[in-house]
Amino acid sequence: MPTEEADTDDEEPTLPPTEAFRLLSDGTRLQTLQGLVELTDAAGYGSDPVSFSALHAQVDTDDSAHFNYHLQELRDRFVEHTGDGYRARYPARKVVRAIRAGTFTERAALADEPIDGSCPQCGDADLRVSYADEKLHVRCAACETGLTSNDFPPGGFAERSLDDVLFAFDRLVRHRVSFATDGVCPECTARMDGHVTTDIPPEWGYEALPAFDCVRCDFSVLPSFGMLLLDHPDVVAFHRNRGEDLREPPFWELALCVSDRYTTIESREPWRVTVRVPGEEGELVASVEGADVVDVLAE
Ligand SMILES: [Zn+2]
Ligand SMILES: [Zn+2]
């Protein structure tokens, strides 16, 4: 029996979420974390730790014993005390960034605003965007097709025109798919596993989709088979040689990304799918096994 190790097993390496939120459920503590991160950011990379008095000046309390009590509560998990001052630990910076992004507090809304661009399904220029429940939705009002619906933090609206918001949304969704196909969770960086799912809302109109699930935080990314190809070097080169840039139109204007028009299911056990990538002359044919692109060939 390794008795020495039994002692370390009694230690609690992970703070339970309820305890982490209890530690943060106080205005003075949140002001302390925000002040600490602000002072550290302002001082720049490699700066000295923040002194007690400088940190106290960031907080709306003159009572230094009261401030010190809350500061001590934050120590270890959120704040590191190093000899002559304090530093924000990674969880503190994450909390402050989430507050700045408005993830917990802001409620942006947008109802069926007309936007530029045309529908890849019917060709009409009657696209609408709405924002509700922290998701941005793009649909075509002419053929009533939902083109995309994805998480977008409310802070993404800050100091941006609607056109800029749409650009940011396009890039965010593309990057999420890139991360997922590389096996990295865009929310928590843990491993993501890819598979094929048929558990899809019927109104989406897809029989099967690649799905990537995080093993740690349960975040999932559900792109179309076509979206798996946007970053593929052969697909990028195929378009570049024709003077086209797949990054130019937003992904919801590309039929490759928001329909299964070019997708053929070849087998279900195991899942094998081919995706045609159309061009002016000729096309590419991609073979996808499970959620992995295994081959791209010119036809
Ligand atoms: Zn349409
Ligand atoms: Zn995750």
CATH domain topology of the domain at 15-101 = Arc Repressor Mutant, subunit A
Name the poorly predicted regions: 1-12
Helix content bin: 25-40%
Distance between the termini: 65 Å
Q: Supply the CATH class of the domain at 15-101.
A: Mainly Alpha
Strand content: 25-35%
By DSSP (H or I, 4+ residues per run), the number of helices equals 9
* Major sheet details: 4 strands, antiparallel
Give the assembly state of these chains.
Answer: single chain
The distinct bound ligands, ions and cofactors come out as: zinc ion
* Number of separate strands: 13
Average pLDDT score: 89
Describe what this molecule looks like in 3D.
With 299 residues, this protein is of the alpha+beta class. The protein has a domain at 15-101: Arc Repressor Mutant, subunit A, CATH 1.10.10. It is 31% helix and 25% strand. It is built from 9 helices and 13 strands. Strands 3-4-5-6 form a 4-stranded antiparallel beta sheet, covered by helices on one side. Helix 3 (27-43) packs across helix 6 (90-101). The chain is elongated, with a radius of gyration of 24 Å.
Helix/strand layout:
Elements lengths: L2 H8 L6 H8 L2 H17 L8 H5 L7 H11 L4 E4 L2 E4 L1 H12 L8 E6 L11 E6 L2 E6 L4 E7 L10 H20 L10 E6 L11 E6 L5 E2 L11 H8 L14 H4 L4 E6 L2 E8 L4 E7 L2 E7 L1
Antiparallel strand pairs: 1-2, 3-4, 4-5, 5-6, 7-8, 8-9, 10-11, 11-12, 12-13
The structure holds zinc ion (2 copies).
One zinc ion binds next to loops.
